[in-house]
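Problem statement: downstream parser choked on a complex file, so we are re-checking the raw output for the fe (ii) ion run. The parser issue turned out to be on our end (a line-ending mismatch), but while we're here, posting the original submission so the record is complete.
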Amino acid sequence: MKPISDEQLKTFDEHGYVVVKGLLDPETDLDPIIREYAGVLDNLANELYAEGTISSTYADLPFGERVTKIYGESGKVHAQYFDFSLPQGGVKEDTPMWVGPAVFRTLTNSRLLDAVEQFIGPEIYSNPVQHVRIKPPEHLTPVNPDTGLVQLGITPWHQDNGVVLPEADDTKMLTVWFPLTDASIEQGCLCVIPDSHRHGLMHHCPGNWGLEVPDSIFGKSEAIPLPMRRGDVLFMQKLTVHSSLSNRSNEIRWSFDLRYNPTGQPTGRGAFPGFVARSKTHPESELRDPAGWERLWQDARFAMAHGVDRPFNRWSKDHPVCA
Ligand SMILES: O=C(O)CCC(=O)C(=O)O
Ligand SMILES: [Fe+2]
């Protein structure tokens, strides 16, 4: 199957990104993820209730309202609890993460991989730089008591190449971003700067929200928001400058961002586990077992908990462009 048209491939090459409408089937591809995460939220609610942090498990609320309520009452955005990745430092044996079967089936979804194959070829490695992002309405998001800033808001302007180690600078890394529920401008959709991938890797400055390409290096006046519907998928090059808006709505903005690269190339986060998602030449090397994937992350967590932190950041804020 070749779900991506020649014109879409050309757009991707020329402008650094392409949104493919309706690539995923909301019911068969997305709803299983949503059902699985309902259970994860249930676990979190039960834990916080048992320790007396929240006054109810809010079991009757729909997912978005429930997670928002629980974050608000506990005063904390529990993003790590849901994420299928680990922090870059300070990992402990019991650092929470969610590496469940519905997530694995999404990473290996054949509709998605058919598309990925058209961008990077038939030897496809699942790069472990990946996240679920549940962004609550900003006016209900707990703030950081030290800074007064919301604990989760915008994503600043950056290139995904900037968040991996230099060893992956020649890796053909593809970013795949899609919403689980419609992501409007108001809800804080993704924004891109068309053609920005033509300017090489830019300096990133560590800031309140994470790594950011400062305006002094690259103006953002050409930026465009990309509102997307359930089922739409954005494919982006590793040098395309992008960000996301704050959530000014009353509903969560919920998305997955995944990455793939041709097998054999460095992922840029070697302490995290990737796997062969598809191989034309060695189909037996494909990982097909969700429990095997879960174990890879559990082993990585154990190794990181007992090893030396090696952050994936290469940038310093002492650089003059960050002043
Ligand atoms: O979803 C977001 O807010 C940011 C996503 C992002 O930076 C990415 O997918 O690379
Ligand atoms: Fe990104």
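For whoever reads this later: Residues 26-50 form the longest helix (25 residues).
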